[in-house]
Amino acid sequence: MANIFPRWSNLLPLKIAVCAGSVAAGVALAFSYYATPKALNVGYQPAQPIPFSHKIHVDQLGLDCRYCHSFVDVSGHSNVPTGNTCWNCHQHVQRDSPKLAPLHRSMDPNFPGYDGKPIEWVRIHKAPDYVYFNHSAHVNRGISCQSCHGDVNKMPLVWRTNPMHMSWCLDCHRAPEKYIRPVEEIYNFDYKPPKDQIAFGKELVKKYNVQVKQLTDCSICHR
Questions:
Q1: SS (H, E, C) the chain
Q2: Do 188 and 129 share a structural domain?
Q3: Distance between CA atoms of residues 193 and 181, nearest Å
Q4: Are 140 and 157 members of one domain?
Q5: pTM for this one?
Q6: Do 146 and 178 belong to one domain?
Q7: 24 within some domain
Q8: Cα three-residue angle 65-43-46, rounded to 5 degrees
Q9: pLDDT-based confidence at residue 223 (cuts at 50, 70, 90)
């Protein structure tokens, strides 16, 4: 009996499989690129309604992180400053700067275009919704803002310096002695770790009662 299908059709299933796999891989790559929030990308630096410079406020003026982020050491959430916090200084300082127009619209009833609406800062750092992160638990146990957010004190406009994905977090959770520092140095961006950081860090881990075994328990973050 003669063959119904030509010889070339023997490779047809393989060709179909290769094409289907390529399409699936392309869809996955496209989804990961276009559907992943920009706030999860290293280097993400969105424009802000006011081009707030940490370099000026922290490095030059010496403001403590907690002046603006006042909940960072007492709450799981680190807040951004309200207009009142900014207005405390800027109702007197740099009043005529055009960069501060959004602040005047929010706070100054005598300013043309005043609407009293809060400043809508663009969020830069955001953990996935299924992750629970507590700021106070970290800064009160020797993990500095600098460890996660980088040298913010040198940034004219803040950008994301670390990926903050699970394996990156686990690097610290598995060996906190590499990153921990004295709590009195948490907000000191000029702090330099000692040469014997590992031995020093182990002492701090013990001193601050950091439960190392619990740090790798998935339920700590994934609740």
A1: CCCCCCHHHHHHHHHHHHHHHHHHHHHHHHHHHHHCCHHHCCCCCCCCCCCCCHHHHHHHCCCCHHHHCCCCCCCCCCCCCCHHHHHHHHCCCCCCCHHHHHHHHHHCCCCCCCCCCCCCCCCCCCCCCCCCCCHHHHHCCCCCHHHHHCCHHHCCCCCCCCCCCHHHHHHHHHCHHHCCCCHHHCCCCCCCCCCCHHHHHHHHHHHCCCCHHHHCCHHHCCC
A2: yes
A3: 7
A4: yes
A5: 0.78
A6: yes
A7: no
A8: 70
A9: confident
> Would residue 13 count as lying in a domain?
no
The pair of structure tokens assigned to 116 is 């009293």
Q: Which residue has the tokens 């339920």?
A: 219
- For 200, the token pair is 């020093």
pLDDT tens-digit series, residues 43-85:
999 999 999 999 999 999 999 999 999 999 999 999 999 999 9
Residues 113, 127: Cα–Cα separation, whole Å: 36
How far apart are the C-alpha atoms of 154 and 21, rounded to whole Å?
A: 46
Using an 8 Å Cβ cutoff, are 191 and 181 in contact? Answer: yes
Tell me how far CA of residue 3 lies from CA of 7, 13, 14, 16, in angstroms.
9, 17, 20, 21
Same-domain pairing of 174 and 69: yes
From CA 11, how far away is CA 38, in angstroms rounded? Answer: 42
Residue type, 5: F
